[in-house]
Amino acid sequence: MTTVKSTLIKFQSIIALFVMCVVLIILSDKFFTVENGWNIARQISINVCISVGMTLVILTKGIDLSVGSMLALSGAVAAGLLKYGLEIPSMNTYVGFTVFGAILAGLAVGGGLGVFNGWMITNFKVPSFVATLAMLTIARGATMLWTGGFPITGLGDHFAFIGTGWFLGIPMPVWITVIVVILAVILTTKTKFGRHIYAIGGNESAARLSGININKVKIWVYTIAGILAAVGGIILTSRLDSAQPNAGMSYELDAIAAVVIGGTSLSGGRGSIMGTVQGALIIGVLNSGLVLLNVSPFWQQIIKGLVILLAVILDRLNYANED
Amino acid sequence: MKEQRETILQAKSITKKFGKVTVLDDVNIDVHQGKVNVIIGENGAGKSTLMKILSGVYSDYDGEILLNNKVVNFSNPKEAMENGIAIMHQELNLIPYLSITANIFLGREITNQFGILSTNQMHDKVDELLKRLDCNLSPRTLVSELRVGEQQLVEIAKALLEDAKVIIMDEPTSAISDSEVEVLFKIIKNLKTQDVGILYISHKLDELFTIADRFIGLRDGKMVGIIEDVRNTGKEDLIKLMVGRNIENRFQKEILPIGDDLLGVENLNLIQADNKARYLLKDINFSLKKGEVLGIFGLMGAGRTELLETLFGLYPKLSTCKLTIEKKEVNISSVQDAILNGLALVPENRKEDGLVLQMDVSKNISMVSTDRVIRNGFLNKHLETNLARKYIDSLHIKLSSEKQLARNLSGGNQQKVVLAKWLANQPKVLFLDEPTRGIDVNAKNEIYHLISQLASKGLGLIVVSSELPEIMAISDRILILSQGKITGEFNRTSANEEAIMQAATST
Ligand SMILES: Nc1ncnc2c1ncn2[C@@H]1O[C@H](COP(=O)(O)OP(=O)(O)OP(=O)(O)O)[C@@H](O)[C@H]1O
Ligand SMILES: [Mg+2]
């Protein structure tokens, strides 16, 4: 009896996902098609990338509200450099960028912003909520400056391949996301660094007294979150063939939702990457299902909110049972 | 007939399981009013679990609880409290930035007809309660400004406000100073005259004889006996009741040859973070040799913990010190440096500073020595399990498996896990801050033997303890700290309680 129950609890999100799919298959003949499947997977992939970074942050008992803005800025930087290159009038130089170079620059921007977040949080003891809230508006402002408020479009086929191309019958964004997820799972479960993330979230003071370099781990965690936001930004820019100044608005909310639905505790130290992936799948399937069923966008938001609440309540109940 | 009236609370055939593990097995106890009912038992015997059942923390169990001969089943601690059963957990549950009054009236605030708090009325009531406890704190004081002993008084006052008939105290004296213990005992005696039944748990056997009216023994989750005749009971009887056999109870560290210089501390100073003109530690000089156990004794607030923490690299910006390890001068400005130089610190608060409670035991044990359980760059489950099992066996840690969460271990076993964590890193110098706090007699002995054994292997140990007999039993040499200065040094032949106390209270 208890084992049946605990298995149910363990696979609760998979079961929820399955039930949702079955319902959608019954209600819509467009849902269960290969095309729609890849469509959903491609849409979800960006959220998964961001959510993986968010999971690491939340495991250390932090939060990163700036992922949406970092995504926009790094996407815009990559697009801008690719299209216009870098002109430095004062030094009379012009640097052109290849696709690869532009992508690296975009990732560097994400990583740099992440380092800055981490530095504020560890060195100046700014609470992560505040530090990343500030970054949310700073990076958004910087995106507006960089783009002049207009989309940067026409980025060429090579760049478009990242977001729209296929490799071995699977869309590129899905490949990228799968690699990110695999690396993150290994990082969290198999490495010292991952162990330290859990220890810090579980009890920072004990972790410090055990000789764990808290600041170093935290700075890395925010840096990774920034880089992964940049990955999302590059996928998005490439898919749309355009860097939008307001790209990624409120993406942080979907990411936090995925993490929370996936069973990671906001009080740190408990949760997993695979949980988050399931959470992101649930949100993704829900989103696309509601669109397919022609549910009004207003209702979509309400339903999404209710699902988040439901997921967390279930999680709470399970843990209440445990102790 | 008289017996009937005296018994206020009864537990009948209580059985409690966590998963497959039976923690309490058909336990029957009764609590007499106006008496101090002491529960004794080894670490993990199930004492705290039983108290949590009686006070409504756990509501699913088999068996019955009778309050005044009526069956009750509390679904939460608040309900138990309303029915007159209050519990003082070892970890106090007060809100630091609220006043004493606000804490005492939390959830039961008095308001006027407009819903506005009747602050004065509440302050007056609290004032009266505190007076009843012979305590002259102002009700407006913030709890964050109180010492642990004073916070306990607030908990007791809270119980009195609800007119508690039974007050449960789970190891109340483990974190308070001797004078605070005296205050607590006076209050307990006072409560007895008001017919309150006290349920009392402690591992400090000596103090029990001044306070206990009866003893109830728990062993491995079973009730093993009651001693009503306290006067003719000795320490050996209690130990026998707890452990089930006689054990050697007079430990004295054997004298072993002492080796080379291990640790040298010169001119250690530590200033207070928020008042740079004040020294928490001043001009500390001492040395430690290989194979030596150095005891540090002092009253609460003497700076003992701060001394260990400074040496361990926790206050690089506030402290100055010339440190040598094995005759080489070293610079320790972080915990990482300390660990690299072979230092280890078992902190005083295992829950706050020692363990990650929601992690399993094996992960806690490998926390410092993670490198030892890494193979090809990745954590290796097998190595980790083996490392954990090695120390679980050698320290006799009682648990169902190394995958058990640290939070689900009994207090004493948690302490052993913290010890295991540091031993697994094979340090050269081991700092132990109150290593036997909350640990049962048997385990205490085990830890004393362990200290001795580690010393014989060439480790140097510094042990801080506020229990004088303990310090005298395990140390080769004793340093006395008072108000941040060393005020005395004794070797084991010159040490006697009076001289030590005198040094500890001198300024
Ligand atoms: N939530 C839980 N889940 C699983 N096991 C538990 C849980 N709580 C306690 N235990 C187990 O129950 C046993 C009794 O624990 P308890 O805390 O009651 O011991 P205790 O007698 O108070 O010991 P101590 O003197 O060390 O405080 C221990 O072996 C512990 O591992
Ligand atoms: Mg206990």
UniProtKB/TrEMBL annotation, chain A:
The UniProt entry, under Pfam families, shows: BPD_transp_2
Per UniProt, which keywords does this protein have?
A: Cell membrane, Membrane, Transmembrane, Transmembrane helix
Q: Which residues cross the membrane?
A: 7-28, 40-58, 65-82, 94-116, 128-146, 166-187, 219-237, 249-266, 273-292
Topology of the protein relative to the lipid bilayer: Multi-pass membrane protein
Protein localization:
Cell membrane
Q: Which GO terms describe its molecular function?
A: transmembrane transporter activity
Superkingdom of origin: Bacteria
GO CC annotation: plasma membrane
- The record's principal subcellular location, in a coarse class, is membrane
Protein known as: Ribose ABC transporter permease
Q: Which organism is it from?
A: Portibacter lacus
From TrEMBL, chain B:
Q: Which UniProt keywords apply?
A: ATP-binding, Cell membrane, Membrane, Nucleotide-binding, Repeat, Sugar transport, Translocase, Transport
Q: Which residues form the ABC transporter domain?
A: 9-245, 265-506
InterPro entries reported for this sequence: AAA+_ATPase, ABC_carbohydrate_import_ATPase, ABC_transporter-like_ATP-bd, ABC_transporter-like_CS, P-loop_NTPase
Record membrane topology: Peripheral membrane protein
What's the name of its gene?
rbsA2
Assign the protein's first listed, main location to one coarse class. membrane
Query: May I have one GO cellular component term?
Result: plasma membrane
Q: Coiled-coil stretches, from where to where? A: none
Family annotation (PANTHER family): CARBOHYDRATE TRANSPORT ATP-BINDING PROTEIN MG119-RELATED (PTHR43790), D-ALLOSE IMPORT ATP-BINDING PROTEIN ALSA-RELATED (PTHR43790:SF3)
Q: Which Gene3D superfamilies match?
A: P-loop containing nucleotide triphosphate hydrolases
The question of whether Phosphoprotein is a record keyword is answered with: no
Subcellular location(s) of the protein = Cell membrane
Report what the protein is called: Ribose import ATP-binding protein RbsA 2
A Gene Ontology molecular function term of the record:
ATP binding
